[in-house]
Amino acid sequence: MSQHATVIGREAAASAELRSPVLVAVVDVAEPIGDLDCSRPLAPPYTGAWILACRSGRPLGTIEIPLHGTMIAAADLDRELHAQLGAALAGPPASQPVHPPVTLGRASVVVPSNFARPAQLRRSVQRLAELDHPDFEVIVVDNRPADAPAADIPGARVVREPRPGISAARNRGIAAATGEIIAFTDDDVVADRRWLRALGERFARQPDLAAVTGLVVPLELETPAQVLFEQSGSGLDRGFVPLTFERAGAFRVRRRAAGTERVGSLYETGEFGLGSNMAFRTSVLRAAGGFDRALGTGTPAQAGEDLAMFIELLAAGHRLGYEPDAIIQHSHRATMAELERQIYGYGIGLTAMLTAITLRHPRHALGLAAIVPKWMRSLRDPASAKQIHRAEDYPPALAQAELRGLLAGPFAYLRSRRSQRRWAP
Predict the structure, then answer these.
(1) What are the boundaries of each domain within the chain?
(2) Dihedrals phi, psi of 118, to nearest 5 degrees
(3) Is 216 exposed, middle or buried (0-12, 13-18, 19+ CB in 10 A)?
(4) Would residue 163 be called left, alpha or beta, if left means φ above 0 and alpha means ψ between -120 and 50 degrees?
(5) CATH class given for the domain over 107-420
(6) What are phi and psi of 327, to 5 degrees?
(7) Is 233 left (phi over 0), alpha (psi -120 to 50) or beta?
(8) What distance in Å separates the CA atoms of residue 421 and residue 138, rounded to the nearest whole number?
C-alpha cells in the first residue's frame, strides 16, 4: 500500500522500457570499470542490461542500458553510470559513513520451505553457508505434511513444521533458533556474502531497533514475466540509503534518512521491507507471539504476514530499520501463469493483512478509513508509485488479478483463521 517510491536516476522510466531477456549484473565502482560481457548462450540475445551499481559492496542505485550487441564497452558503461546515477557516484555518500567495528552476536537464519523448489533451496543454503559472519546457524523449516520423508540439507539444521503456511514455519524457526537475532529469507533467493553481517551491524549500531530489513533485487530477468514483476509495483520500493521508522502518532510513522525526516501513514508499507529479507531481535519476536499463522504463503490468505508484523511492531512503539547494504537477489516467477497467480495472491494478502490487524486491534479501522480512499484512487493514477514503473502495454490481466485478490482478501483471511483452528496448539 505504498504511496511513495524511492527511485534513483531514471530507474522508474527505464524499468517500464525493459523487454526480456535482460542481463542482470552488479558493477562495483570502487574497482576499475571494465567491459561488460552481455552475451547469452541461448536465443534470443539480451536486449538490455539491468545493473546494480555498488561501491565496495554498498549499493548506490540501479541503471538500465539498451543493448545493440553482446558487450558494453567500459567507457560507455562509465558514461551511463554517471549519467543515470549522477551525484551518487561523486564520492562516499554522507548517509553511508564509515562505521567503527562492532561486535556481532549470534544470529539464526531461518528458511521456511515446502520443498517445491529443491534445487533452488539447496543453492540458497549453499550461499548462506558462505556468509561473512562470525557466529550463525542456518535452520531450514520443512513445511511439508507430517508423512513426508525426512530431509537432509547440507549446511543447515532441518526442523519439521507440518502445520501448513509460512507463518507457522517461521514460528517453528523462532522456537528452534539459538541466535540473539533471527533473519528470515526464502528458498528461491541468493544472499550477498555480507547480507547477514550488514543486518547484524545495523542492530549493533542501533540497539533500539526491533527489526531490520534489506534490499531485494532480481536474480535474473530472463522472461517476460520476470520483467513484468519489476513493473508491477508489488516489490520493495527500492532505496539506497539507510532508513529508520518510528511511531509518530496513532496511525502515523516518522521516516528518518540522512538527517531528514518525513511523516506518513502507518499503512504506507512500501519502504518497510519484504519477508524475503528481514531480521528481528529474537526477544521481540517471541514477546510478540510470532507471526499470524492465518497469514502468508500456504494459507488461504497467501501473503501479508511480514507487513502485519512490521505494522504491529511500529504501532506498539518499536523502531524499524532499513539497511540497503543487506542485499538479497530474488528469483521472480518465470511464467505468465505463475506471475498472475502471484499478483493475485499479493492482492489477497494485502487486504487479508489489513483485516487481520483490524480484528486484532479494532483501532486500526480509524487509521485505515483515512487512507483507503486515497490508496484506491492511486490504483488508477498513472503517476502513483504503484503505476509509475509500468509500461504502456502492461497486461490488463495482471491489474485485474490484483484487484480480484484485493476484493477476496478479507474473506480469505476469515477462511484461513477457521482452518488454523483445526490444528492443536
Answers:
(1) 11-89, 107-420
(2) -60, -40
(3) buried
(4) beta
(5) alpha beta
(6) -105, 130
(7) left
(8) 30
Asked if 409 and 416 count as a contact pair (C-beta separation under 8 A), the reply is no
Burial class (CB in 10 A: 0-12, 13-18, 19+), 90: exposed
369-377 contacts at long range (C-beta below 8 A, 24 or more positions apart)? 370/251, 370/265, 371/1, 371/3, 371/265, 371/267, 371/268, 374/3, 375/1, 375/3, 375/267
Return per-residue pLDDT of the chain as tens, 425 residues: 333 222 223 333 345 467 889 999 999 999 999 999 999 998 899 999 999 999 988 999 999 999 989 999 999 999 999 999 988 887 654 445 567 788 899 999 999 999 999 999 999 999 999 999 999 999 999 999 999 999 999 999 999 999 999 999 999 999 999 999 999 999 999 999 999 999 999 999 999 999 999 999 999 999 999 999 988 877 767 889 999 999 998 899 999 998 899 999 999 888 999 999 999 999 999 999 999 999 999 999 999 999 999 999 999 999 999 999 999 999 999 999 999 999 999 999 999 999 999 999 999 999 999 887 777 776 666 666 666 667 778 889 998 999 999 999 999 999 999 998 887 65
pTM greater than 0.70:
yes
